[in-house]
Here is the input.
Amino acid sequence: MTENQLVPKCENARLEFLHVNAGYNGTLALEDVSFNIPQGVRVALVGPNGAGKSTLFKVMTRLMPIRTGEVLIHGLPLGHHLDCLAYVPQRDEINWRFPATVQDVVLMGRFGKKRWLKKLDKTDIDVAMRSMDQMGILSIRNTSLADLSGGQQQRVFLARALAQEPHILLMDEPFNGVDQTTQEKVIEILDHLRSMCVTTLVATHDLNLAASKFDQVILLNHKLIAAGPPGEVMRKDVIRQAFGSSALDFDNLVVVDQCCPE
Amino acid sequence: MIDFLFAPLQFEFMQRAFVAVGLVCVLCAVVGCFVILRSMAFLGDAIAHSILPGVAVAYLLGANLTLGALVAAGAVAAGISFISRKGALQEDTAIGILFSSALALGIALISTIRSYATDLSHILFGNLLGVRPEDLLGIAVIGAGILLLLFLAYRPLLVVTFDPILAATLRLPIDLLRTAFLIIIALTIVVSLQITGVALVTAMLVTPAATAYLLTRRFPSMVVLSALFGLLAGIIGLYASFYLNIASGASVVLSATGFFLLAFLFAPRKGWVTARIRQQRPG
Here is the structure.
């Protein structure tokens, strides 16, 4: 297979949120959120704990229904495009004691392209192998999930997401508690995905990375506070508006004081 | 030795018991692999106990006992998902309330029957030696149906079990799979009723699967090993029951527990004793 088959078409592809309201019971986790992201752009999703970042991902994966508003991918409502999304979960969302090897997990990324009984073919194996190779985990493909380090765990799920050949990749806190090598690997993979025109949405606590490594930043606190290039969004007054009293102001420096979720 | 093995088989009821115990134990062991990995052991227990009032009502009405059990299992599974979905209570609290209430209701109903003690003990602890040819047919048909269903939906069930969010992004029918799996558990428990009874069926769902889990690193081999342990426990338990004159359901469960203890202590990677030995000799 050629590299071309992996690359989705760049034209007419975008992600839009139109006045989205979502949440359980009485409270709204997302309130009137609207933004527009062209395909192939790398976006950091930033906001205080409980600001609705995970809810936004859940809405996109259709795990949480939208109350009102619309989410469009390629201009079409959610659910139209098969295999459009891949999601890299936070590490504590996974049952690490599940009896599976690294390769088993990565191959699961190919299940969406298959009917339930159809065997995985050579293309599936090739894509899985290449994904593991890109993440530098090919040599540990027969290791059980339970024996992996934190950084390796993160890479396994990135490799699985790559194997899904997504148009949009969602990552929840990929920089939390991983080693420097893995962090660099993640950035490297994000560069590679951008060259393949894959849109990436990364929820992160790391404002520094958000400002330096991303094309756009979405600042969220239930409502959309700001969206745009880091230079516009990562300003003192805007940050303070999103983080409220947990933002401390030292002259030209804003420090956001928040505990890590773990 | 040959005599020892063949002596029980000269009785027709024992032949039927062996076939029945083999079928049910393998079925429970396979379904159990999914049950323990989805942390549904408690739910399985709840469904098993909630079957009691259904069986009792069917008995009082002179209706089919299996049908009564199925209706009750379905009602409780739906009740649990309703109570916990509203978000008012944790799921385990909902399960705790429903299954103890169902058990009490079942006992209350059965206590109005005159032959109370015998009937209750058959439902609670099984009546393996009283398996009739038509029971055997029912077990075989339902068991084969469940195994076929698991085979057909193996891949989506595996994904939902391991990572429901991936299942969502792969557009798998998550709710359908969840409901289908609840029905599979309920059916498995209903066909196991006569073998191990309400009180002990959870053991056959959980113990062989847990034993296999300790010994493998991959899901397919876990299923195969679990089925093997289930089958062995069933056969050994039945021999023990025949020669030692102990209740057959209990003896089958205790055999499964024996295998589990061996694996728990001596499993090559996860065993308790093996780990201690490794600590003594590092490297």
Chain B touches chain A through 27 residues (CB under 8 Å).
